[in-house]
Design a protein that fits this description.
Structural class: alpha/beta
Strand content: 15-25%
Order of helices and strands: EHEHEHHEEHEHHEEEHHHHH
CATH class of the largest domain: Alpha Beta
Radius of gyration: 20 Å
Number of helices: 12
Helix content: 40-55%
Largest sheet: 7 strands, mixed
CATH topology of the largest domain: Rossmann fold
CATH superfamily of the largest domain: Vaccinia Virus protein VP39
Number of domains: 2
Length: 257
């Protein structure tokens, strides 16, 4: 069967074994997004996981139901048809998945919002590199800041295009994501998320100018009060140069205004 949309089926069995074995799944509820033809699903089930598989493609859902009829009957597998960006997902403990490249960002943000113990996720290499980009580098952006605020990210495996069918044009990274509390106090998480979004929407502007362009998120009076309260040297810098502590300072100042 050909891959739907932008999904590339993982066919490298050694990689599958490494991914499935990178976290203890026995007896745990494991969310798998985009199971495709079920090669990783099988490896997780064989390790004693209870798998919740979310698949958007109806043809693949039908194929999975046939392939895993026994596991479905035994209750060791749940198949959730639908779009992982918005479908209701049953409770889970862990996430192990090969995410479709085009929705990696939205699904990652949703998973962090829902919460989990550990996630082992596959991304396009360049996307994963942005997740761990540090302040002051060209790769840092909204993704870097939001992910690093709420989780630690550790690359554990790199895969070539030959590991997939059809072969993508890029290399892939498998990373381990472990949620944690923000390293600096955040008064309002929504305000924090809005600040990060607004600033990186105008990443070539100074913080002062970028905030003043954020009237879709904050009232102009609130922005001006926050600008008056923030340090001048911070206001003159650009978003890519701020640390996580400084993003928290901007957000907390706005939340207090």
């Amino acid at each position: 069967m050909s891959a739907p949309r932008d999904q590339h089926f993982l066919v490298d069995r050694r990689a599958v074994e490494r991914i499935a074995g990178s976290v203890e799944v026995s007896g745990r509820r494991v969310l798998e997004i985009g199971p495709g033809e079920g090669i990783l699903t099988r490896a997780l089930l064989d390790r004693g996981a209870h798998v919740i598989a979310v698949e958007i493609d109806p043809a693949l859902v039908e194929e999975l139901e046939l392939t895993f009829a026994d596991e479905l009957e035994e209750g060791r597998l749940e198949i959730v048809p639908g779009d992982a960006k918005k479908v209701e997902i049953p409770p889970f403990d862990l996430v192990v998945a090969n995410l479709p490249y085009s929705v990696s960002s939205k699904i990652t943000f949703r998973l962090l919002d829902i919460g989990f113990e550990v996630a082992v996720l596959m991304y396009q290499k360049e996307f994963a590199q942005r997740m761990i980009a540090q302040p002051g580098t060209s790769d840092v952006g909204r993704l870097s800041v939001m992910v690093q605020t709420y989780a630690s990210v550790k690359p554990i495996l790199e895969l070539s295009p030959a590991s997939f069918r059809p072969r993508p044009q890029v290399r892939s990274w498998v990373v381990r994501i472990t949620p944690h509390e923000p390293p600096y106090p955040i008064t309002d998480r929504k305000v924090y998320a809005d600040v990060v979004r607004v600033l990186f929407s105008h990443r070539r502007k100074t913080i002062r100018k970028a905030l003043r362009l954020g009237e879709d998120a904050f009232a102009s009076e609130t922005i001006e009060r926050a600008i008056a309260a923030l340090p001048e040297d911070l206001l003159q810098r650009r978003p890519e140069d701020l640390t996580l502590e400084e993003f928290a300072l901007v957000a907390n100042t706005l939340a207090g205004c």
